[in-house]
Amino acid sequence: MSNNVKDKQKMKAIIYTEYGPPEVLKLAEVDKPVPKKNEVLIRIYATTLGYGELVARNFRKVSPGKFAMPLLFWLIAKISFGIRKPRNKILGSQFSGQIEAVGEDVTPELWKVGDQVFGYTSSSMKTYAEYITLPDDGILSLKPSSINFEEAAVLPYGGIMALTLLRDKVDLQPGQKILINGASGSIGSATVQLAKSQFGANVTGVCGTSRLEFVKSLGADHVIDYNKEDFTESGETYDIVFGGLVRTSFSKIKNSLNPNGRYVLTSFKMRQVGQMLRTKLFGNKKVNCVLLPETGEDLREVAKLIEEGKLKAYIDKSFPFEQMAEAHRYVEDGHHKGHVVITLDQ
Ligand SMILES: NC(=O)c1ccc[n+]([C@@H]2O[C@H](COP(=O)([O-])OP(=O)(O)OC[C@H]3O[C@@H](n4cnc5c(N)ncnc54)[C@H](OP(=O)(O)O)[C@@H]3O)[C@@H](O)[C@H]2O)c1
Hints:
With about 350 residues, the protein is α/β, with parallel strands linked by helices. It is built from eleven helices and 15 strands. It has helices at about 5, 50-55, 70-80, 150-155, 155-170, 185-195, 210-215, 250-255, 270-280, 295-305, 325-330; strands spanning about 10-15, 25-30, 40-50, 95-100, 115-120, 130-135, 140, 175-180, 200-205, 220-225, 240, 255-265, 285-290, 315-320, 340-345. The model has no long low-confidence stretch (mean pLDDT about 95).
C-alpha cells in the first residue's frame, strides 16, 4: 500500500448510491477531503434540507413536466446529477461550522483556522458530511455572532435568493405592495422577512392552512390561505406578485397587478419566458422570469442583515446527523412549519 493510501483519513457522511425515497440515505465512512492550495477545510456542525435536496435525492422520478424549470434545465440537471444513479453521492448544500485547515495560498485576511463560518455549496452539494472543502472565494461568510450554528445552517440559500430577488431583480421600494406565493418555503420565508424588515414593503404571504401562523410570525402584513381563497379573485392589487413554485396564468394574475405591476417568477417554463418577451414589448404589466446569482459577497450581505435582526431562522425541528432519512421523510411529508436542521457533533 502506498503512503498516500495508508494516510487517507476517513469521515462520516450520509451517502446515497441510488435514487429513491428517504431510506436511500445511509450513514457511511468516506475519505475526508484534503484542501487544495486555495481551499479551506471546514468541520461541519449543522446542515439542512430543502427543495434542492428532495429533488436531487429522487431525480429519476422527476419528469420534465414535474421539474420546476424549462426542459433544457431538466436535461442539464439530469446529466449533472447522473442519469441512472447519482454521480455525486453526498447531498446537502447549506452548512455552518468551523475552519479546521487552510491551503497554503489562502491569506489570513480571508480565512484562518478557527473561523466560525456558514455557507452554501449550491448544486455542488456535499454538506451531508463531517468535513467539506471550499475554495477561498466560495459562498462562505463568517457566522453572525448573534445566532448559533443550527440557525446559521438554515439561512444561506433563502437569504441569498431573497436578497438578490428583492434588491437586484425587483428593486423593491418602501411602501410598495408585494404578494409572495410559497411564503412558508425556503425562499418565500426569507423573502417575506426581508421585504418587510429591509425594504419596508407592504407584504402579503400566500401559504397552506397549517403554515398561516408561521407566515404571520415572519412579519407579513396579511396572509392568504391558498386552500380557502384565490387571491386573483379578491379584487386586491399589488405592485409585485412573486410566483414562488406556483405558476398561475398571467391572464389571471393581471387582475391582481397595479398598472406597471410585475409578475416575477423564479420557477418558470418556456411559456412564461414567451410571456416575458411579449410583455416586454406590449402592455404595461410585465412578466419577469429571473435567474438569481449566488455569490460569497451576497452571503456576507445576508450575514449583516442577520446581525441587524432583519432575517431570522425559525427552527421547527432538529434531527441528529444519523437520522437524515427521518428528516427527509418529515419534510417530504409536509410536516414542517419552519426550518429543519441536522446537527453533527461539535
Ligand atoms: N430562478 C432561480 O435562480 C432559482 C434559484 C433557486 C430556486 N429556484 C426555484 O425555486 C423553487 C424552490 O423554492 P423553495 O426552495 O423556496 O421551495 P420550498 O421551500 O419547497 O417552498 C415551496 C413553497 O411553495 C408553497 N406552495 C405549494 N403550493 C402552493 C400554492 N398552490 N400556492 C402558494 N404556495 C404554494 C409551499 O407552501 P405550503 O408549504 O404552505 O403548502 C412551500 O412553502 C424551485 O422551483 C426552484 O427551481 C429558482
